[in-house]
Structures are given as structure tokens and as C-alpha cells.
Amino acid sequence: MINIGEIKKSLLSALWFMLLTFPIMVIRVNTIDHTIQWRWERLVWVGGAVFILSFAWRYLLRRRQASARQTVMDIQTRGLVSHLLQRPREIFQTPSVRRPAMGLALVFLLALPLIFSWNRTILMTNVLIYVVLGLGLNIVVGLAGLLNLGYAAFFAVGAYSYALLNHHFGLGFWTVLPIGAGLGALFGILLALPVLRLRGDYLAIVTLGFGEIIRLMLENWNDFSFGPSGIDNIAPPGLFGLSLTLQQTHTFIYYLMIALTTLTVVVVRRLENSRVGRAWVALREDEIACQAMGIDKTKAKLSAFALGSTWAGTAGVVFAAKQKFINPYSFTIWESIMILCIVVLGGMGSIPGVMIGGLIMVLLPELLKEYADYRWLLFGAILVLMMVFRPGGIISDVRKAYAFEAEEEEPHHG
Amino acid sequence: MADMAAPALEVSQVTMDFGGLRAVERVDLVVRPRETVALIGPNGAGKTTLFNCITGIYSPTQGRIQLTAADGRVMALKGLKPNQVTECGIARTFQNIRLFQNMTVLENVMIGRHCRLRSGIFSAILRTSAMRREEAQVVKESYRLLQRFGLARHVNEFAKNLPYGAQRRLEIARAMATEPSVLLLDEPAAGMNAQETQELVTMINQLKASEGLAILLIEHDMRLVMQLSDRIYVMDYGKLIARGTPQEISRDPAVIKAYLGEEEQ
């Protein structure tokens, strides 16, 4: 495994980095004493760290290539190695393991407000909101393959529709929830109509622009959206007219989000293995072949955008109710990128992947609060590593396998 | 005799311009039910462009394309979108295989059934009984189709993991799933070895016999063309330069010139 060439390459990278970082890491000019301090020991640290990192990087890369070659070789005769790699997923998919595991997770989620503090519950509500957003964006990006960088705009549509309708007309949470979802879908279609012909990078740029337009509009159209100062005193969701304390309200919203997440998972799961969902995946895989198979590309794109933004609208309404105060700064481009990261990191097109992605992306910054300055650096590094070593995400998409009775003898061809 | 039957596909005077370039010029072509017609010609002759005109990927500059379904309905295809053309009953395969790589073999065929199914978003979310019945039906039909094409053992594999010959077969199976009356094959034997090509010939003959299908194929493998086709059209520089039975074509001086240059054979 270890050969001289690899060591040499790592050594070279280490030397290169030592040279590059020499001026800032080693030399320190003391402007008061007019002395120069040489911190040579730091150079050793840089060299050592880069050497080890580079070596590990090369090793992992080589292993990845080897395993890729392995799967190519084992297409027909599934070898031991690839079989072992498949094991964890297979184990989880057997009902006797899967059901108790899922049940346990559900019980834990339901009991969470009783076990942990109030703040933790709010944090978990956040996680769930992002999971719903991720699952919604997953329809557009993961299934239909349409890169959408303005997804936070639809989130904003939902949040502002509740905030404004509540502020002006005193409409309640439960009335606005479907309205917010509907408005989300409507804005999804409004964005999709002009971009039907666009693909890939071009689509990404237009959606990015759309997201910024919505945010700038909210920021500057004071008469409509109260500008940067936002909207205050948004009513919390009602529960049969009971009056709840602040803490109870948050617990209630938490359970509400669990219900909403469950609903989202069920709907997305049903959609992805339906006629419509297959059409989305076909659109992602090959647009021309997809049309040649009789799929109306326009309809498929519109429905993907509409359904994706429906979830953003819904999550937006809950978000507004939870925060009680919203302003345009909750819906910046970073929000869109964060949701996209959840989808890409978790695994495009994969529901459990997106859930894990949401968990990581929301909890990680919370756990690493002391290192808040390095948050985006860390995300960037994680994403680069993921793209190199696990391009499919943490849990990559699996298509549904259908079972058939083996009774039919395959008619020999030829 | 096949010549007596009404044409399934009739292409008349089709011209396709790309800016100043005339890729296809006033081409007439007829394919009848149960007939296999080959379209041959040197590279760049405009064969695939003509296919793209018929299937709606391009809209021809001039001309008329007409499809007659088995039940006698006559449909004008010019100006329709590709998915509408497929709904009318034309299916195609591609020169470079264009399967849905990250979908399973079964799903590829199920996509082919798409335009013959009806269930939409809401019935999928609610899992209505009609939707479940339709799904069960499409899975069964698609599996049968895979069995016919000798692909049943790959049913849950990703399309990208199939061996080359099986990918070509899957493309034809997927096209057949749309219930076409005319099947267009763009170089179906490209990259196949002798045995695979022979299997392909058997398969195409079976299709023709069992479905009453009209087949139009582009192919460079002359042995296959001579074996399979009832009639041959030859294109060069966007124009038809010859038409006729395989025997006539193999002796046609214009064809020999187009393929081999000026010299006498």
C-alpha cells in the first residue's frame, strides 16, 4: 500500500506549503522593539500537518478508486467486498431491524421535550423546519435535477404571508397554513414559467436572481413588508382556543413540526415512486430521452417547482409563528445555500439522507459555537471532502426494487 | 404484399435548414405496417436530422409528416412536441444510448409507459385505489416486456450497470413500452459484435411479425441492412439519392458512387 512515490508526493506538498506559509507563520515583526522574531517551530508543525493530511488524502483517494474499480469488475458476479459494503444498508432494510429502529427514533423524538431543556426543543424544531425545507428542495434539485439557488424566497413567501395576513386581517395560523402552502406553489410556478427552457448553470443564475429580488423587495418596499425592521408580534398557533405559556407554545410547535415532517416524508416518498416522480427522475437523467418517452417536460418542471415550493411556503408559515418576529435577513442567499447544502450533503434524492443532512447542518454550528467564525470554512471543507469521497451524499439515493416471483422462465433470446 | 398497405408513416418534401445550412432537402419517405425500411448514407448525410424532424426534436422548415395509426386515424406530426409525437405512436432509440442511467431497468421501461397512464400528483399522494391498480398493472406489463427482451434478470439493476448489448436491448424495450405503431431505430447495431448483431436481427424480425410494427432504421452495418430491410432509402448531402429493394440498391451506381467515390467497382 505505502510506496515511495506517495511519500515523495506528500513530502513535496509539505515543502510547498511550508514555503507558502513561511512569511505569515514564521516571521513576526515586533514594530515596537524593531525586532524580528523567527518562529521556526511553527514551520515544523505546518510541514508535519500537511504531510500527514496529504498522505491521508492520497490514501483515501486511492481506496476510493480501487473500490470503484471493484464495482465495475463485480457487475455480474457480486464479489465479497462489494457484498460487505452493501451489508449495513441491507441490515437496516430488513423489517425486523428497521421497524424497531424507526420506532425507537420516533419515541425519542416524541419524548424529547420531556427529557431535554426548552432550548433544546426549540433547536430541534429548527432542525425539523430545515428537514422539511430540505425535503422540499430535494424534489426540485434531487429528483428533478433543477438547480434552484433561490429557495429561501419561497420560505420567505410563506413566512410573510402569515405575518402580513395576521398583522392586517388577524387571520389565524391554521387558516394561513394552507394559504402559505398555496402561495408557495404559486410563486414556484411563477418562477418556473420563465425558466422552462433553462438548464444547469443558467437556471441556477436565474433562480439566484429571483431569490435576491424577493429579498430586496421585502427589504425596500416599506409600505408592504415594513422593510428591514420586519414584522413583530406574530400570533403563535392556536390549540383549540387554549391559552398556552410561551414554553408550552414552543413544545406545541415542536409537535406540530413532527407532524408536518412526517406528512412531508410520506408525501415525498409516495411521489418519488409514482408516475410523476419517475417523470422527474427521468427529466434529471436525460431531458431529450425523457421527452422522447412521451413525458411533457413543461408539466414535469412546473409540477416539480410547484411542489418543492409548497413545502417551503408551509415551513415559512411555521417559522413565522415560531419566531413571532420576521425580517428580510432570515431569507438571504445564505439560507438558500444552507438548504442546498442539506440536500447535497445528505444525499440528493434520498429522504433519510436529507433528514441526516438537516440534523448535521443545524446541530453542528450549535455544538461548535466557540468556533462560530470558522463555520463556513468548516462547511466548505466538509462539502469538498464529500464531493471527492462520497459524491452521492451521506446516504445516496436508492431506487425502489420490485419483487417478482421467480416462476417465469426467462425466454432465451436469439 | 406490403406495398399495397396504406403507409404508417409518410414523410413528404421535408426540408430542414439550420441557418444557411440545408441539412435535409425535400425528402420523401414512406414506411408501411409490417415493413422494415432502412435509411442509409455516409456520415453527415442528414439521416439523424431526419429522425429528429420526425420525432419532433426539430421542427422541419418545410414539408409534411403524417402518421396513420392502426385504427385508421391520420395525424399530422409537424410542429408537435416530441412527447406528443410519442403519444401519437412513434417511438425511437438513440444513436448514443440515452437510457436513464440511475434508474433501474424496470423503471426505464415504466417511464416508457408514462404517456399511456393517467394518474397524477394528487392520486399519488392519496394513493387512490385507481392509482394503485394502475401501478400494479404497469409493473406487471413492464416486467413482461423485459422478459420478452431477455432482460428480466436485470430487473432491479441500474441501467448504467448493464452490459452494452443489454443496454441497446433495453432501449428498444423502453421504446416498445410506449406502444408505437412506428419504431425508429438509430444505429441499433453500433458497437455490437457479430453474435449480438445476429440476436438483434432475430429480435427485430420478431417485433415486426408480432406487432404489425413499421420499422425505420438507420444503420451502417450493410450485412444487417441487407438481411433485415424490405426497402432501402439512401441519403447523401441531405438528399435522397436512391430508393429500392436491397438488390436494387446494391447495384445502384449513385449509391456506389456516394459510398466509394467516382471509380467503377
Summarize the SSE layout with pairings.
The complex is a heterodimer of chains A (414) and B (265).
Chain A: H1 4-25, E1 27-30, E2 35-38, H2 40-73, H3 80-93, H4 95-115, H5 118-143, H6 151-169, H7 173-192, H8 200-220, H9 222-225, H10 246-272, H11 275-285, H12 287-292, H13 297-323, H14 333-346, H15 351-367, H16 375-389
Antiparallel strand pairs in A: 1-2
Helix pairs in contact in A: 1-2, 5-10, 5-13, 5-14, 5-15, 6-7, 6-8, 6-13, 7-13, 10-13, 11-13, 14-15
Chain B: E1 9-18, E2 21-31, E3 36-40, H1 47-54, E4 62-68, E5 74-76, H2 82-88, E6 90-92, H3 105-113, H4 121-126, H5 129-148, H6 164-176, E7 182-186, H7 194-211, E8 214-218, H8 222-228, E9 231-236, E10 239-244, H9 246-251, H10 253-260
Parallel strand pairs in B: 3-8, 3-9, 6-7, 7-8
Antiparallel strand pairs in B: 1-2, 1-4, 4-5, 9-10
Helix pairs in contact in B: 3-5, 3-6
